[in-house]
Write a structure and sequence with these properties.
By secondary structure, the protein is mainly β. Helices cover 4% and strands 13% of the residues. The longest helix has 4 residues. The N and C termini lie far apart (41 Å).
């Protein structure tokens, strides 16, 4: 794929890939609106804050223990899936609480 092709990608499914970290190459997908990273082994989501066009972010079934405040920079985000993680940090005042839909079903926090 060329650099121009990467800028056209708006949806990406990386579910069930045993990812332990967010691939750095995702930063090149500047028009990405829908990202599915569920069912991996992510313990952090460093770098995702650069994907400012994201509307949907699926992080279900990973190994996250907290939601980084940097994700608050995702001002277009309307759907955030966090269920089936190991969230322990209290985040009621987290910047993402403004997202119109945050799913925490079966997570440690409700």
């Amino acid at each position: 794929l060329t650099e121009a092709d990467l800028e056209k990608v708006t949806e990406l499914h990386l579910s069930n890939n045993l990812l332990a970290e967010v691939p750095k190459e995702l930063e090149k997908l500047t028009q990405l609106k829908y990202l599915h990273l569920d069912k991996n082994k992510l313990t952090n989501v460093k770098g995702l804050e650069k994907l400012t066009q994201l509307k949907t972010l699926n992080l279900r079934s990973n190994r996250l223990t907290e939601v980084p405040k940097e994700l608050g920079k995702l001002t277009q985000l309307t759907s955030l899936e966090l269920g089936v993680n190991q969230l322990t940090a209290y985040w009621r005042n987290h910047p993402l609480m403004g997202a119109s839909y945050a799913c925490l079903k079966k997570g440690s926090i409700s």
